[in-house]
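Aggregate trends can hide what the representation actually does to any particular protein. In the encoding step, the backbone of a single protein was reduced to a row of integers, each denoting a local shape. The record that follows shows the chain in one-letter code together with its fold in token form.

***
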Amino acid sequence: MMNNSVTEFILAGLTQDSGKQKAVFGVFLILYLVTLLGNFLIVVTIKTSRTLGSPMYLFLFYLSFADACFSTTTAPRLIMDALSQKKTISFKECMTQVFAVHFFGCTEVFVLILMAFDRYVAICKPLRYTTIMSRQICVVLVILAWVGACIHSSAQIFLILRLPFCGPNVIDHYFCDLQPLLKLACMDTYVINVLVVSNSGALCMMSFVILLMSYAVILYSLRNHSAEGRQKALSTCTSHFIVVVIFFGPCIFIYTRPPTTFSIDKMVALFYTIGTPLLNPLIYTLRNAEVKNAMKKLWCSKV
């Protein structure tokens, strides 16, 4: 770890206008609470339902859990800072936030890949589905996703901790992230940025390509299915594909480019840090009859 004269950073936030900051507080407080509620409902429904025991719902359980955690890494700080005069964050808290954002974001990436793999096996190899996607194998795959996310995040932190920060200390963002921090380092960060792009950028691009290829294979194999089976498979895959595009589009824009920042970065980051965790529960419940029925049964039993 490099010696730093900077012990804390100041987050610029989304806006400096006091009137707009009050709007930011109200809007994002509501969005964050809805995000937590939506993902909590999915987690509880899948955990308590006897009908949602397939691997797809196991992965959806962990996706919703990761979504809630991912949103919590950035949203509370954004909401609190909207009403704070001095938006400071200590060096250690900043490094913790960088790790948490990339850990839960990467977990979401790997779980989305597992969900695509599950749909591929279910549609393309239905006779071997129960053997390939057994409960034990699914649990191992989920554990590997968490371990992979931890390795990815640890690599990012290792790169950032090697940077010296000697001022200025104003991060032009609403949370601590790699590109804004690289901009503040008082050394040439070209090599570090190449390593960051080869880590986060390559992860985003490769995962996106893998997902696109898997859905292309799935769509091609659907031509042999009955109309009813094709419709059901298309409905499920469409939900997954919408989530993939919403999540990976902004991530690729942020993490696969040269060492520079744009004013639009903060708005783009909102899509994957706030938007995706908010929309995932809506997409998966509104387009999935089994989840909706299980939620109705859970609600009726509690009432």
About this structure: The first helix runs from residue 18 to 48. Residues 8-302 form a domain with the Rhopdopsin 7-helix transmembrane proteins fold (CATH 1.20.1070.10). The CA atoms of residues 203 and 266 lie 21 Å apart.
